[in-house]
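Fold it.
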Amino acid sequence: MLYSQGFKCAEILSKKIVPLFSLCKEQASVQNHYDFGLRALKNCLIRAGNIKREVKMGVVSEESRVVSEKLGSDIIELKILYSSMPKMVGSDVNLLEKLLNNLFPGIEYSVNQLDLLMKCIKTVSKKLYLIGPSGCGKSTCWQVLLKALEEYDKKESVSYVIDPKSVSKEELYGTLDQTTREWTDGLFTGILRRKLLIILEVK
């Protein structure tokens, strides 16, 4: 996999990456949204390969700008940080940093590189993650917020609760019939379409 993504020192990197994901899976707290399996590993390596090619071709993206002319291990570590750290809770972030320092010694990573990205996210982001164990008040939190927004806007709001793990990707996002080229909305896209139609009717 590493060779196919253009990493010449694939054997050395594999001896670091595979143990890293295994240790994260063993030592991190149990969270439903965590994924340290083969799928996550594959996605990480594919994106790391993309970054490597972007750097080589001079294409500037947020991630390729950060790595600049760095080596393979730097790119791998950067991609792990970009993909894994935002998902991790509390003490697990420290665990990831320690594991990275042990397996990728000598590589410095400055969070200052993310300042511009964080500023942009805060400006345009329309989503929020509530993470915690059962019964800690996650549902109550967003329900209170929704009620407060109703009072502020003087409009009735409607909430939609979807468990993405209970349905397939096709059922969630929709499907395109390869023969008839007819699109069928999924749960999520169907809700978006209905809400958009309501907004257009109001205008």
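The chain has two domains: 3-123, 138-202.
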